[in-house]
Amino acid sequence: MTQVTERPAPPPATGERHRRRFVGRPATWLAWALFAFFFVNLAGVIGVVVVNSFGTRWFTTWLPEGITTKWYGAAWREFGLSQVFLVTVEVSLLVVAISAVVGVPAAYVLARRSFPGKRLVMVLFLLPILVPPITYGIPLATVLYKFHLAGTLAGVVLANLVPSIPFVVLTMTPFIEQIDQKIESAARMSGAGTFAIFTRILAPLLVPGILAALILVLVRTVGMFELTFLTAGPDSQTLVVALYYAVFSAGIRTQQSIDAMAVLYTMSMVVLLVVALRFVNPTQLVTRIKEEGTNP
């Protein structure tokens, strides 16, 4: 008598497995629904501001009655945006330059030298990044007011340097660690001094890292609200602080002018972020913060 054995069913095709996996997970659908809900609401909020900045009148209809660009000119005149942009550029460039001069050598020392308390120094450098700016911004502003620096351009620059220099150190340290120390040793054996090694050998190799760090500092300075708000005066407001005051003066200003100012600020930040993401890897930066935070 012949014994009949049942053959196992063939495995489903790759497309079929993917379809079953996708259909069979309600959590996946829930996650996609939440993402879609979030982005639709975000696009709605931004879209209303952008459309209103170009609208003549917009009350009870789906779209404005007409399209105009006069609110951008009105915002430029009413809020003195030429002065605000000038202050923003001055503060940003000063913060970027001083952060580079101080932060790059500090990153080199932390990457190359070993000394007692090095981990503690590294954690102290990271604190202004890990801690919300408002927590140290109030005592910092108190000190600046005591020395009559608050309300001036110098005070705003000093306040923004507190988180900016650690950003340069954090960004530059991995770049310096990747350079083989044998290159520096060979240069020293050939008679090169420390300044010559740093300017002629290390600096060209560190250009991508320096560029990434400075762009990151530039983005953070332009978008820094807490420290600038606490230390800025009428003549030292950056764009983000001027936008805050414009929003709370909405009773005597046209809403379209304020929306036009918000669009200008958003576009400037988007441009800076796009440029920054071409040179900075956010995943590498977050990993570096976690490593330093878990290994004090």
Written description of the protein model:
It is a single chain. The chain has 296 residues and is mostly helical. The chain has helices at residues 14-23, 26-54, 70-78, 81-112, 118-130, 133-146, 153-177, 181-189, 194-223, 226-231, 239-248, 255-277, 282-294. The radius of gyration is 27 Å and the shape is globular.
Query: Which outline best applies?
Result: globular
Helix content: over 70%
Radius of gyration: 27 Å
Q: Helices and strands: which structural class?
A: mainly alpha
Question: Could you give a quick summary of the protein structure above?
Answer:
With 296 residues, this protein is mostly helical.
SSE diagram, text form:
Elements (H helix, E strand, L loop, with lengths): L13 H10 L2 H29 L15 H9 L2 H32 L5 H13 L2 H14 L6 H25 L3 H9 L4 H30 L2 H6 L7 H10 L6 H23 L4 H13 L2
Helix pairs in contact: 2-12, 3-12, 4-7, 4-9, 5-7, 7-9, 8-9, 9-12, 11-12
Keywords:
296 residues, mainly alpha, 13 helices, 75% helix, 0% strand
